[in-house]
């Protein structure tokens, strides 16, 4: 029996998206920049996908969708596309629990002389809007706050945060990679200026993503070339991937009203089944939380999250851990550290994320196996420490 519970890392490409991709690969393979029939068929495919993706996030103007190679490129285009408009360093604000696709380009800006403010979070990983208000300066040009944190599941109060920046005429970006397709998103109601998406988080293919850019907001492209995607993302578009992304977005929007409550029920069931396990402590905000996301720190001495991932894998269950391994040495999770966890606890984070194929039986089996593995590891640790 195999159970995949790492849907926040990637989702399987759904059959409808695969079918559309195969159709494009065999019949719609033209270059969308070409003026002949083959090219225009491909261009039409892209524009349909642009409407499908835009509809998923409530973008009334499809031209506000800029296709990229994924969420990471969308994040980088948002950060660097704004920053490169300025000849002298300015001020940027992010949270202390951003994905590395935001944190690393911002660190590069800091090396170039930019002022960077990293907003603190509480023990549940949530930003206080008052901290954002206090951090804004006269030279603040961009605020980027992740919508749904992939490691601990916490949702941020994006509309409240964006309203603060709007009053000061400061651009607001959010990485909504984990949220779009799982919770209703409307960019116009949220009040954001930029928003990042990823195809392979919503059962579309890997290698496609998008940046929503509010009409009137300007960016400098990351690289030069043919001027595709409204002159903001040069390079011949990956038409099959974009087409698959569009189909996945359309179906995610249609199924959300049924799928999201189902995931919440399974999520809460898993939390409930593991509530009596003394070796697991939930992380993140239980109420402002991604619908498919369950996360803990493990309190078995000497056992890291990576250890538990390997043990669960041997049992046929795929989960993930938050700590990173560099040159054979584990590093504490920066997300858990930002939430004031100790180094030991920040090495012991695990994440179980649910998806379309997850059943109640999967949840019950996973809870039983996880408890059994923890008890076995604890018993082994006790024996070795004698």
SSE layout:
Elements: E1 3-4, H1 15-27, H2 37-56, E2 65-68, H3 71-83, E3 91-95, H4 100-111, E4 115-119, H5 129-135, E5 140-144, H6 158-167, E6 171-175, H7 187-190, E7 194-198, E8 209-213, H8 228-231, H9 239-273, E9 280-282, E10 293-298, H10 305-314, E11 317-318, E12 320-321, E13 324-326, E14 329-331, H11 334-338, H12 343-346, E15 349-353, H13 360-385
Parallel strand pairs: 1-11, 3-4, 3-5, 5-6, 6-7
Antiparallel strand pairs: 2-8, 7-8, 9-10, 10-15, 12-15, 13-14
Give a short overview.
With 386 residues, the chain is α/β, with parallel strands linked by helices. The protein has 13 helices and 15 strands. The protein has helices spanning 15-27, 37-56, 71-83, 100-111, 129-135, 158-167, 187-190, 228-231, 239-273, 305-314, 334-338, 343-346, 360-385; strands spanning 3-4, 65-68, 91-95, 115-119, 140-144, 171-175, 194-198, 209-213, 280-282, 293-298, 317-318, 320-321, 324-326, 329-331, 349-353.
Describe the structure.
The chain is α/β, with parallel strands linked by helices and 386 residues long. It folds into two domains: 3-9 and 257-385, Aspartate Aminotransferase, domain 1 (Alpha-Beta Complex); 15-252, Aspartate Aminotransferase, domain 2, CATH 3.40.640. The protein is 42% helix and 16% strand. The chain has helices at 15-27, 37-56, 71-83, 100-111, 129-135, 158-167, 187-190, 228-231, 239-273, 305-314, 334-338, 343-346, 360-385; strands spanning 3-4, 65-68, 91-95, 115-119, 140-144, 171-175, 194-198, 209-213, 280-282, 293-298, 317-318, 320-321, 324-326, 329-331, 349-353. A seven-stranded mixed β-sheet has the order 2-8-7-6-5-3-4, with helices on both faces. α7 (187-190) links the parallel β6 and β7. α2 (37-56) runs parallel beside α9 and α3 (71-83) packs parallel to α4. It starts with a strand and ends with a helix.
């Amino acid at each position: 029996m195999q159970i995949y519970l790492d849907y926040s890392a990637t989702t399987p490409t759904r059959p409808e998206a695969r079918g559309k991709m195969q159709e494009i690969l065999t019949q719609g393979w033209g270059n969308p920049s070409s003026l002949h029939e083959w090219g225009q068929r491909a261009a039409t495919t892209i524009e349909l996908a642009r409407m499908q993706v835009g509809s998923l996030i409530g973008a009334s103007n499809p031209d506000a969708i800029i296709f990229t190679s994924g969420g990471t490129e969308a994040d980088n285009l948002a950060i660097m596309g704004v920053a490169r408009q300025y000849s002298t360093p300015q001020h940027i604000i992010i949270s202390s629990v951003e994905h590395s696709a935001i944190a690393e380009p911002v660190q590069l800006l800091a090396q170039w002389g930019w002022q960077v403010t990293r907003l603190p979070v509480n023990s549940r990983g949530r930003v206080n809007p008052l901290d954002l208000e206090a951090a804004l300066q006269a030279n603040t040009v961009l605020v980027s706050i992740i919508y749904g944190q992939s490691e601990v599941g916490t949702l941020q109060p994006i509309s409240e945060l964006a309203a603060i920046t709007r009053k000061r005429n400061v651009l607001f970006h959010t990485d909504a990679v984990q949220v779009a397709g799982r919770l209703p998103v409307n960019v116009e109601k949220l009040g954001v200026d930029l928003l990042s998406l990823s195809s392979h988080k919503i059962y579309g293919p890997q290698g496609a993503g998008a940046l929503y850019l509010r009409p009137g907001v300007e960016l400098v492209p990351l690289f030069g070339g043919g001027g595709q995607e409204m002159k903001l993302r040069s390079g011949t578009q990956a038409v099959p991937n974009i087409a698959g992304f569009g189909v996945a977005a359309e179906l995610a929007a249609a199924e959300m009203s049924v799928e999201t409550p189902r995931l919440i029920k399974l999520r809460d069931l898993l939390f409930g089944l593991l509530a009596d396990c003394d070796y697991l402590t939930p992380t993140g905000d239980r109420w402002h939380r991604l619908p498919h996301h369950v996360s803990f720190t493990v309190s078995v001495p000497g056992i890291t999250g990576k250890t538990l991932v390997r043990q669960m894998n041997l049992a046929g269950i795929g989960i993930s851990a938050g700590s990173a391994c560099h040159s054979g040495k584990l590093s504490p999770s920066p997300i858990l550290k930002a939430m004031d966890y100790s180094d030991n606890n920040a090495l012991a984070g695990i994440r179980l994320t649910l998806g379309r194929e997850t059943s109640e039986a999967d949840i019950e089996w996973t809870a039983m196996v996880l408890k059994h593995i923890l008890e076995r590891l604890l018993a082994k640790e006790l024996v070795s420490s004698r």
